[in-house]
Design brief:
By secondary structure, the chain is of the alpha+beta class. The protein folds into six domains: 30 residues, no CATH class; 36 residues; 80 residues, conserved putative lor/sdh protein from methanococcus maripaludis s2 fold (Beta Barrel), CATH 2.40.420; 63 residues, Beta Barrel (OB fold (Dihydrolipoamide Acetyltransferase, E2P)), CATH 2.40.50; 76 residues, Helix Hairpins, CATH 1.10.287.470; 78 residues, Efflux pump adaptor protein, beta barrel domain (Elongation Factor Tu (Ef-tu), domain 3). The chain has six helices and 23 strands. Strands 1, 17, 18, 19, 22 and 23 form a six-stranded mixed sheet that branches. Strands 2-11-14-13-12-15 form a six-stranded antiparallel barrel. A four-stranded antiparallel sheet has the order 3-10-8-5, with no helix packed on it. Strand 12 and strand 13 form a beta hairpin. It is rod-shaped, with a radius of gyration of 55 Å. Keywords: Membrane, Transmembrane, Transmembrane helix.
């Protein structure tokens, strides 16, 4: 019986290739399932390629709809992509010059006080560090028991010499009355006169010696040479002091203080005597107004620095030996000023972006000056009339096209 003549009702012929394969298989054999699956896979691939082609065509059509506008629309789109930057015209500002320095605090005029007499044992100390004293005030009392006896002895010698002088004068007076009567000669009168003169001289010598002893005794006490503040006390009760003992008290004349500010050669040359300075001691949190009263006439050869001495009024917060910082006025500077955001820095140095009349940005090298609360001064590179990009300079390149808008406020 022929296989091809017995196709069951309802069965669908899957294709010529499958039919031929069945016919070649001989009578009584069923259809190959592997061949049927291969045919279905091929049909599925054809449908996938058809769908991919349709999707690609749709994408191309959408792109042409979006980008296929008129030339005017394309030009408008290009203009919208030009960045908008904020610019500022710095002008020229007058800025008070300032120099910052550090240094130490100290007494403006320090007075070391020691023993100027022959010395002795310290019996009493009347002041301590931190006390205010007047000129001539006794700071410490030295034992003077021996010196007092010596002065008393010399005072007695003065009285003896005075008595001898009175006797000599009386003898001379009597001789003068007798010489006219011829009882004594003129030679005797000369001898009496010499005796009287010698007695008077001995009185003067005794009095001078007494004055010397009293002066030495007065110098035994340690006294203040001028009014001021006691900074240091280096003596104790019972201590034996003398001319070689050293400094017993250290005083600040008038209580005046100063700051020794260390400055470079250039900063020192920019200052003058009389300029104001604000001094802030470390740890006090306060600022004191002072004035430069002396500039160092020499420069240290090792540090290449000099000293500016800033006079300060007394205050308990100003402790000699303490560390402090100072801001010193150094005159006015007229220069362009820009906010920090406008200044860029790289390996070549500081620069800004300037916008020309054609709307293009150009890099401009600048030299910065003083930093203030209002901005940074520009020492060179700008004359103040340029349009300078205020922000976003880091995203620009030399020659970029930009649109500008003025800043709400400038650094003038």
């Amino acid at each position: 019986m022929n296989y091809d003549s017995k196709i069951e009702p309802g069965r669908v012929d899957t294709g010529n290739h499958a039919h031929e394969h069945v016919a070649a298989g001989g009578s009584g054999a069923s259809a190959d399932p592997l061949a049927i699956d291969t045919e279905q896979e091929r049909r599925s691939r054809r449908w996938i390629w058809i769908v991919a082609a349709v999707v690609g065509a749709a994408i191309v059509a959408i792109w042409f709809l979006v980008h296929g506008g008129s030339k005017e629309e394309a030009a408008g789109t290009g203009a919208a992509q030009v960045p908008v930057v904020t610019v500022v015209v710095p002008g020229r500002s007058t800025v008070a010059g300032e120099i910052t320095a550090t240094g130490t605090l100290g007494a403006r005029r320090t007075m070391p006080v020691g023993s100027v007499g022959e010395g002795g044992e310290v019996r009493e100390i009347r002041v301590d560090a931190g006390d205010w004293v007047a000129q001539g005030q006794v700071l410490a009392v030295i034992d003077r028991s021996v010196q007092a006896q010596a002065a008393a002895s010399q005072a007695a010698q003065v009285q003896v010499a005075a008595a001898d002088a009175r006797i000599a004068q009386s003898n001379l007076d009597r001789g003068l009355k007798l010489v006219d009567r011829g009882f004594i000669s003129k030679a005797d009168i000369d001898s009496l006169t010499a005796t009287r003169d010698a007695a008077v001289a001995r009185v003067n010598v005794a009095r001078a010696t007494l004055g010397q002893l009293r002066a030495q005794n007065a110098r035994l006490n340690i006294v203040a040479p001028a009014a001021g503040l006691v900074l240091e006390r280096n003596v104790e009760l019972g201590q034996v002091v003398g001319g070689g003992t050293g400094v017993l008290f250290s005083l600040a004349k008038g209580g005046e203080m100063e700051m020794l500010a260390n400055l470079s050669e250039a900063d020192l040359a920019a200052l003058r005597v009389g300029v104001e300075a604000n001094v802030k001691p470390v740890g006090s949190g306060r600022t004191f107004k002072g004035q430069v009263w002396q500039l160092s006439p020499v420069i240290d050869t090792n540090t290449r620095q000099g000293t500016a001495r800033i006079a300060l009024s007394y205050d308990p917060a100003l402790r000699p030996g303490g560390f402090a910082s100072a801001v010193i006025a150094s005159g006015a500077v007229v220069a362009p000023m820009l906010p920090e955001s406008a200044i860029q820095n790289d390996a070549k140095g500081s620069f800004v972006y300037v916008v020309d009349n054609a709307g293009k940005v150009h890099r401009r090298a600048v030299a910065t000056g003083m930093v203030t609360a209002r901005g940074i001064t520009i020492k060179s590179g700008l004359n103040g009339s340029e349009k300078v990009v205020l922000r976003a300079g880091g995203f620009l390149n030399d020659g970029d096209k930009v649109k500008t808008r003025p800043a709400a406020s400038t650094a003038n």
